[in-house]
Amino acid sequence: MRVYSEDTFYSTEQSELWMYSEDTFYSTEQNELWMSSEDTFYSTEQSELCMSSEDTFYSTKQSELCMSSEDTFYSTKQSELWMSSEDTLYSTEQSDLWIIHVVL
Question: How many CA atoms lie within 13 A of 61 on its CB side?
Answer without folding.
Answer: 5
